[in-house]
Amino acid sequence: MLTRINHIGIAVNSLDESIPFYRDSLGMTFLGWEEVTEQKVKVAFLQVGESKIELLEPTSPESPIAKFLEKNGPGIHHIAYEVADIETAIKKLEFEGLRMIDAAPRNGAHGAKIAFLHPKSSGGVLTELCQSGH
Ligand code: CO
How many domains does the chain have? Predict the structure, then answer.
């Protein structure tokens, strides 16, 4: 069902202050950034081999990322696995008795379709399914 780690999501206070570490010090390829209004975040992507790092900066105090930063400070927020067919993957997990935060896919960055599992069903690791938008 899962084909690779699509990306690791990292909560940051500022994209501008965080990007140089990943791009310049670690030498990752910066792929660009965009705002995902639905989730009240600005998202930057950096390529690492076949996977990406997703930096998430909140654009509003009501953003889930703002709440995460308040509680935990900057750091790893979620792991996203690539799936070929997100609807089928959600159905399979629900059939297994797992809880989803998103029972229906929503729009992520780069035209991807994404859905989060409930942390209670994923051992406390916020887990995202991601069907790339290419
Ligand atoms: Co993500």
Answer: 1
To the nearest whole number, what is the mean pLDDT of the chain?
95
Distance 55 CA to ligand 1 centre (A): 9
Tokens coding 31: 């792929």
pLDDT of residue 108: 84
* Domain containing residue 70: 2-131
Average of per-residue pLDDT across 22-42: 95
Q: How far is the CA of 72 from the centre of ligand 1 (A)?
A: 18
How many angstroms separate the alpha carbon of residue 52 from the centre of ligand 1? 10
Q: Are 23 and 30 in contact (CB under 8 A)?
A: yes
d(CA 106, CA 129): 11
- Closest by alpha carbon to 9, among 72, 81, 107, 60? 81
Please give the single-letter amino acid code of residue 9: G
Q: What is the pLDDT of residue 134?
A: 63
